[in-house]
Amino acid sequence: MSRLLRLSVPALSLAGVALCACGGDDDPPADIDAGYDCTIETRDDEYTAGMELVGAKGVTFRLVSSDPAPPERGDNTWIVEIEDGAGMIDDGTVEVSTFMPDHQHAGSVDVAATPDAAVDGRYTLTPVNMWMPGLWEITVEATPAGGGIAERDFVVFRFCIPR
Ligand SMILES: [Cu+2]
Question: Of 3, 6, 42, 128, which sits most exposed with the smallest number of CB within 10 A?
Protein backbone atom coordinates (compact mmCIF):
# COMPACT_ATOMS: atom_id res chain seq x y z
CA MET A 1 0.00 0.00 0.00
CA SER A 2 2.87 2.39 0.61
CA ARG A 3 3.44 2.93 -3.07
CA LEU A 4 -0.24 3.69 -3.61
CA LEU A 5 -0.16 6.34 -0.91
CA ARG A 6 2.68 8.11 -2.64
CA LEU A 7 0.88 8.42 -5.96
CA SER A 8 -0.40 11.85 -6.89
CA VAL A 9 -4.14 12.41 -6.93
CA PRO A 10 -4.52 12.18 -10.73
CA ALA A 11 -2.48 9.00 -10.75
CA LEU A 12 -4.56 7.56 -7.93
CA SER A 13 -7.65 7.44 -10.09
CA LEU A 14 -5.72 5.26 -12.51
CA ALA A 15 -4.06 3.14 -9.85
CA GLY A 16 -6.67 0.42 -10.00
CA VAL A 17 -6.16 0.07 -13.71
CA ALA A 18 -2.38 0.13 -13.33
CA LEU A 19 -2.35 -2.56 -10.67
CA CYS A 20 -4.54 -4.83 -12.70
CA ALA A 21 -2.54 -4.32 -15.85
CA CYS A 22 0.93 -5.10 -14.48
CA GLY A 23 0.71 -8.82 -14.95
CA GLY A 24 2.54 -9.32 -18.19
CA ASP A 25 5.06 -7.86 -20.56
CA ASP A 26 2.46 -7.60 -23.28
CA ASP A 27 -0.03 -5.83 -21.04
CA PRO A 28 1.62 -2.61 -19.79
CA PRO A 29 -0.13 -0.30 -17.33
CA ALA A 30 -2.40 2.30 -18.89
CA ASP A 31 -0.80 5.29 -17.16
CA ILE A 32 2.72 5.11 -18.57
CA ASP A 33 2.56 8.74 -19.68
CA ALA A 34 1.36 10.01 -16.30
CA GLY A 35 4.93 10.17 -15.02
CA TYR A 36 6.40 9.12 -11.70
CA ASP A 37 7.42 11.28 -8.73
CA CYS A 38 11.14 10.56 -8.44
CA THR A 39 11.56 13.30 -5.80
CA ILE A 40 10.07 10.95 -3.19
CA GLU A 41 11.80 7.81 -4.45
CA THR A 42 14.39 6.63 -1.90
CA ARG A 43 15.55 3.37 -3.47
CA ASP A 44 17.32 4.92 -6.44
CA ASP A 45 20.95 5.92 -6.95
CA GLU A 46 21.90 9.52 -7.58
CA TYR A 47 23.73 9.48 -10.90
CA THR A 48 27.22 10.90 -11.00
CA ALA A 49 29.79 10.22 -13.71
CA GLY A 50 32.30 7.75 -12.32
CA MET A 51 29.98 6.36 -9.63
CA GLU A 52 31.02 2.93 -8.38
CA LEU A 53 29.18 -0.08 -7.00
CA VAL A 54 30.99 -3.11 -5.57
CA GLY A 55 29.61 -6.62 -5.91
CA ALA A 56 29.48 -9.24 -3.17
CA LYS A 57 32.71 -10.80 -4.44
CA GLY A 58 34.57 -7.51 -4.49
CA VAL A 59 34.32 -6.66 -8.17
CA THR A 60 34.07 -2.91 -8.76
CA PHE A 61 31.72 -1.66 -11.47
CA ARG A 62 32.38 1.97 -12.37
CA LEU A 63 29.76 3.83 -14.39
CA VAL A 64 32.17 6.12 -16.23
CA SER A 65 29.41 7.92 -18.08
CA SER A 66 25.84 7.79 -19.27
CA ASP A 67 24.62 9.40 -22.45
CA PRO A 68 22.27 11.10 -21.83
CA ALA A 69 23.27 12.02 -18.27
CA PRO A 70 21.57 11.47 -15.95
CA PRO A 71 19.90 8.45 -17.56
CA GLU A 72 16.60 9.27 -19.24
CA ARG A 73 13.54 7.49 -20.51
CA GLY A 74 14.33 5.59 -23.69
CA ASP A 75 17.75 4.54 -24.93
CA ASN A 76 20.90 5.29 -22.96
CA THR A 77 24.52 4.40 -23.71
CA TRP A 78 26.70 3.59 -20.72
CA ILE A 79 30.45 3.28 -20.45
CA VAL A 80 31.52 1.01 -17.58
CA GLU A 81 34.85 -0.15 -16.23
CA ILE A 82 35.06 -3.42 -14.35
CA GLU A 83 37.88 -4.37 -12.01
CA ASP A 84 38.56 -7.15 -9.55
CA GLY A 85 41.42 -7.83 -7.17
CA ALA A 86 43.55 -9.12 -10.04
CA GLY A 87 43.07 -5.99 -12.16
CA MET A 88 40.78 -4.85 -14.91
CA ILE A 89 38.40 -7.53 -16.15
CA ASP A 90 39.30 -7.46 -19.82
CA ASP A 91 37.62 -9.60 -22.47
CA GLY A 92 35.34 -10.99 -19.81
CA THR A 93 31.72 -11.91 -20.22
CA VAL A 94 29.48 -8.97 -19.39
CA GLU A 95 25.72 -9.28 -19.31
CA VAL A 96 23.13 -6.62 -18.62
CA SER A 97 19.48 -6.96 -17.70
CA THR A 98 16.81 -4.36 -17.04
CA PHE A 99 13.87 -4.74 -14.67
CA MET A 100 11.12 -2.69 -13.03
CA PRO A 101 10.68 -4.09 -9.50
CA ASP A 102 7.38 -2.33 -8.82
CA HIS A 103 5.80 -3.82 -11.92
CA GLN A 104 7.72 -7.10 -11.94
CA HIS A 105 8.60 -6.87 -15.60
CA ALA A 106 11.84 -6.87 -17.50
CA GLY A 107 12.77 -4.33 -20.12
CA SER A 108 11.94 -5.21 -23.68
CA VAL A 109 15.26 -4.41 -25.37
CA ASP A 110 18.43 -6.51 -25.19
CA VAL A 111 21.56 -4.65 -24.08
CA ALA A 112 24.81 -5.28 -25.95
CA ALA A 113 28.09 -5.15 -24.01
CA THR A 114 31.06 -4.38 -26.24
CA PRO A 115 34.62 -4.34 -24.92
CA ASP A 116 36.68 -1.25 -25.70
CA ALA A 117 39.66 -2.32 -27.79
CA ALA A 118 41.81 0.48 -26.41
CA VAL A 119 41.02 0.50 -22.68
CA ASP A 120 41.31 -2.63 -20.54
CA GLY A 121 38.20 -3.44 -18.57
CA ARG A 122 36.05 -0.86 -20.31
CA TYR A 123 32.77 -1.80 -21.99
CA THR A 124 30.07 0.06 -23.86
CA LEU A 125 26.56 -0.97 -22.86
CA THR A 126 23.85 0.01 -25.31
CA PRO A 127 20.98 0.48 -25.54
CA VAL A 128 20.21 0.61 -21.83
CA ASN A 129 16.53 1.09 -22.54
CA MET A 130 14.17 2.32 -19.84
CA TRP A 131 10.96 2.87 -21.72
CA MET A 132 8.61 3.54 -18.83
CA PRO A 133 8.54 6.06 -15.95
CA GLY A 134 9.36 4.58 -12.56
CA LEU A 135 12.18 2.80 -10.78
CA TRP A 136 14.48 0.66 -12.93
CA GLU A 137 17.06 -1.87 -11.83
CA ILE A 138 19.95 -2.30 -14.24
CA THR A 139 21.93 -5.41 -13.34
CA VAL A 140 25.47 -5.61 -14.70
CA GLU A 141 27.13 -9.00 -14.34
CA ALA A 142 30.74 -9.82 -15.15
CA THR A 143 32.73 -13.01 -15.37
CA PRO A 144 36.49 -12.74 -15.95
CA ALA A 145 37.86 -14.37 -19.08
CA GLY A 146 38.23 -18.08 -18.35
CA GLY A 147 36.24 -17.75 -15.13
CA GLY A 148 33.17 -19.63 -14.04
CA ILE A 149 30.22 -19.07 -11.79
CA ALA A 150 32.52 -18.84 -8.76
CA GLU A 151 34.12 -15.72 -10.22
CA ARG A 152 30.94 -14.15 -11.50
CA ASP A 153 29.87 -10.98 -9.71
CA PHE A 154 27.19 -8.36 -10.27
CA VAL A 155 25.80 -5.06 -9.08
CA VAL A 156 22.44 -3.37 -9.52
CA PHE A 157 22.23 0.26 -10.57
CA ARG A 158 18.88 1.79 -9.62
CA PHE A 159 17.65 4.85 -11.48
CA CYS A 160 14.31 6.62 -11.37
CA ILE A 161 12.75 7.79 -14.61
CA PRO A 162 10.28 10.63 -13.96
CA ARG A 163 8.58 10.78 -17.37
CU1 LIG B 1 6.84 -0.87 -15.62
Answer: 42
Q: How far apart are the first and last CA of the chain?
A: 22
Residue 4 belongs to a domain: no
Give the pLDDT score at 33: 74
Instruction: Kindly report each contact of residues 113-117 with a partner whose C-beta sits within 8 Å and lies 24 or more positions away, as own/partner.
Output: 115/90, 115/91, 116/79
**84 C-alpha to center of ligand 1: Å?**
33
Q: What is the pLDDT of residue 121?
A: 96
Output the CA 104–ligand 1 centroid distance in Å: 7
Whole-prediction pTM value?
0.80
- Give the model's confidence band at 23: pLDDT under 50 very low, under 70 low, under 90 confident, else very high: very low
Total number of domains constituting the chain: 1
CATH number of the domain enclosing 81? 2.60.40.1930
Q: How far is the CA of 103 from the centre of ligand 1 (A)?
A: 5
CA of 133 to the centre of ligand 1 (A): 7
